[in-house]
Amino acid sequence: MKKYLLSLAAAVALFSLFGCNNHSEAPETVVQLKPMQQSYRGVVPCADCEGIEVSLFLDKDGSWVRTMRYLGGKGAGSYSDYGTWERTAEKLMLRDSKGEKTWFQPHDDALEMLDRNGNPIDSPFNHTLKAVDATLPTVPMAMKGMYRYMADTATFKDCATGRTFLMDSNAQLERGFAGSPEPVLVEFKAHFIYDENPDTGAQFKALKADGDGRFQPGKNCDN
Description:
Layout (H helix, E strand, L loop, with lengths): L8 E3 L18 E3 L6 E6 L6 E8 L4 E9 L5 E11 L4 E5 L4 E7 L2 E4 L14 E4 L9 E10 L2 E6 L5 E4 L3 H7 L6 E13 L6 E7 L4 E3 L7
Parallel strand pairs: 13-15
Antiparallel strand pairs: 1-2, 3-4, 3-10, 4-5, 5-6, 6-7, 7-8, 8-9, 9-10, 11-12, 11-14, 12-13, 14-15, 14-16
């Protein structure tokens, strides 16, 4: 896996003015974004614990996985979520599976957390995640989507992001699908993995279930 995400390019549209006199088009301006690392980690403030260790993995396909480990306090434990990310010249925006946004400002090998409106946080405490070498997190995440098993291949269309993933083999899910002619809504805990095509050797992202799924026949992502 490449250590650095591929740079993205943002272009400013050309505007043409029309009238009695001819005007030349404005020159195109291209803003080159600096490459970002794939994994970041840091301990940020917590209202009722000693701190929250945040690990963020940015995948080159525009998705992310975040693990938050609560340190001390009554709510100690780990929690993971996921979503999609977008970047501009100055900010990184994460959108989670519930549509909530989190903002960061990239700084060389670090990400500075911003407030919910994308503005700097006025605080003496640390809100910075530092670049680290880390792999795709495997902490289970709650997921909901449309499952289908056909021709020995299982797929899952995630309700939150609309993306479709191949599923790692899982006998319980295959039995639960029970040969339905249409995809069936299912809820389970799962994590992403990288798998390899046995014919081409190409790597692809897949989903591995952590435990049994709860099928809801007759329902879909909208109800």
